[in-house]
Please model this.
Amino acid sequence: MRVHVLQIAYGDDEPMADRTRRVADLVRRQEGADLVVLPELWAPGGFLYRTWGERAELLDGPTVRALAAAARDLGAHVHAGSIVERAPDDAPAQARGETGRGLWNTSVLLGPDGELLASYRKIHRFGFGQGEPALMEAGTEVIAVDLPLGPAGTPVTIGLATCYDLRFPELFRLLLDAGARVVLVPAAWPAARVEAWQLLGRARAIEDQVALVQCNTGGSHGGLAMGGRSQIVDAAGRVLAQAGPDEEVIVAEIDVAAIETWRADFPVLADRRL
Model:
């Protein structure tokens, strides 16, 4: 399973429409990829809280449509990172979330035909009462989906998480119990805490014996420098590929069969008690 991680760097001065076109073209150039992964909120801006309301869109909005077209042109699965999803104008009150704001940080997984395969609304919102918690609803569903990315097109269960979720190991246990062998983690993780980003990714891989694909942003937005250091980690915690701080594409082969071999050779998961 060949994975291409697109660590996108950008600043507040790049218009959203221009960035969307630029990133879609970059996706199209990922020849040989089985799966392409993009960062969290790369189009609207990871820390541009003041613009989220005006840049929110439906799941079939312009960002997802642009990436769906790129996925079709490339002929590969594409995790399109996340968008600020808004509820339809005619959505009933119960469909607008617990507080009725009707905005979510939603990641999107697309098939090689551009069809929407899965979406995940971020469960753990970052901001300690401000930022995401003040502006967005919390997701409530754990999402894992089977994709034909194993040997000879056999299914591989892919789990979805986003950024701050990485600090909550119980979510990854639930993804493990849902059958996940690989977990995709798009992020907008600041430079000030990038060491934690690297360490937590390896920890989640080691404790759950899953491969992690972590895609961060570079550049600076909303007054914060982003950390970069996207990485692909195997189920034993070995880093297969890692980016620097700037815009970069990293590539690695995830050996799905080796995950099963590692679990059999070191059957730590069988000793779970709680």
Notes: The mean pLDDT is 96. The two ends are 33 Å apart (CA to CA).
